[in-house]
Design a protein that fits this description.
By secondary structure, this protein is mostly helical. It contains 17 helices and no strands. It is 76% helix and 0% strand.
Amino acid sequence: MMLDFVTFGLYLLLMFGIGMYFYFRTNNVSDFILGGRQLGPIPSAISAGASDMSGWLLMGLPASALVGGMTAFWICFGLFLGTFLNWQLIAPRLREESELLDDSLTVPTFLERKLHDPTGFLRIALSIAILFFFTFYTSSGFVAGGKLFNSLFGMDYHTAIVAGAAVVLTYTFLGGYLAVSWTDVVQGLLMITAIAIVPVLAIQELGGVEATFNRLHEISPNHLNIFQKPDGTAMNALTIASLMAWGLGYFGQPHILARFMGIRDVKSVTSAKWIATAWSGIVMTLSVGVGLIGFVYFYDAPLADSEQVFIQMIKVLTHPLITGLFLAAVMAAIMSTADSQLLVASAALTSDLLGKYLTPKQSLLLSRITVGAIAMIALILAWDENSKVLDIVSYAWAGLGASCGVVMLIALWWKKATWHGAIAGALTGAVVTVIWNKLKGGIFELYELLPAFILAALAMFVVSLFTQQDTSEYTENR
């Protein structure tokens, strides 16, 4: 057990070391939020992928596959397409235009300048949406961290989530964007190593690949069917569309969009795109494999919490020295997203809502204070120990995709988009997400992101068409 703690502790020390290193290289709010736009394609791609997947990759998705079998394929397929399209459609234009438009540091500020909103309402609306949904998103990371610390150290859940939050908060507070990005690179590589090795160890113990899948087919043949749930219920078109709709959320995730804005140059986007897309496909395939193999491995002694399947496999199958390292990989998945979310949510308040009232030094100080304040609110939201990582992530993902995502996609690709339409789209997306999530039964079982995205896009198109104005003064920036 002591070796578990040693390797886990060494990993955390490494993260703190990176945070301290970049603390002394962070001189202003631009460095803190976007790292001075100096990150290359490889760290940008891996950092985007690691911050994207979060604890959901190693806890939520394996649980989905364990319970629902290969129907989890549809979520993965939607996310795989979403990753590619995000890098293809959004990244090049956002990187170029965000710098041209007065070196915009955040998504709300960029869209305000892109659509020439003289009122500031669009920036405020998007900033509030980001703060609201990202606080929930961050709480999902604390829930995941609480489950990990509870499993590893036997901590009470509430003590565990405070400990996990403290780790993330410390180095995000210190180093900002560069610390977050470079720790994400380390964490991304650690995540893919762990999720590749542990299923192999489980398969070996179960008697090999053929024996494992024969056993899976014997106890639950529908676990391998992408068109049927394990209980034999057919996957209808509505259910498949609901799962694939996850891919739409990518266009509005500010912590991922920040990687596009912070990459070194537009030329770097192409190579980063292929690295990020490949990384996404590989880790999601491995994650589903963990769930399917875990279903067989723990079939005779079912887990009380399906979201702990990967954690329990690590503890049972690996040497204590490796156990600590691989459990650090789970912590890595949690940290890599929570840190990015805290950073972007902080930017939404500091840069987008209060930026014009503050000096550069005041902005940097307030950014760090805001990181702590948002973390405290997220902790309160994570306090319920029955919370599920997947449920919280899906809600926040939908809200951001339907508000920020719709506006970003249309603003970059439709010259007739107006700031009036963008406000209508952002508000529609956010409100429909919140309301749809609370309603149950029938059509309301559809994942809220799909109807919210469609209605938000319609609102933006219609209102934009009714609020056309003379664009001759700024057409070249559109």
